[in-house]
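Homework help board

Subject: predicted structure for assignment chain

Our instructor gave us this sequence and asked us to write out the predicted structure in token form, then describe one feature. I got the tokens but I'm not sure how to describe them. Can anyone check?
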Amino acid sequence: MDKEDFLFGSLKMHGDKTESQLLEINNLTTFYNHVQVATNMVIGGKMDPEDAYKRIKKWYKIMKKSHKALKNDRTKDQ
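My token output:
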């Protein structure tokens, strides 16, 4: 088991999902995990709250950009 698997684990899903839905779920899960790690580091005194805010903001922008790209792909397919 590598460090990423240990820290972030994997998500078990039920039902049929499209590729777009799977990517969206993966993006949300990744964002959630990064927020959780940053929050715990602040609580544990290992990270400054301002640094945590910057990291969370960076990951939010990445997630938002991916969401827009997926949304544009879905509208092109229809």
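Reply (TA_rk): Your tokens look well-formed. For the description, you could write something like this. The first helix runs from residue 3 to 8. That's the kind of observation they're looking for.
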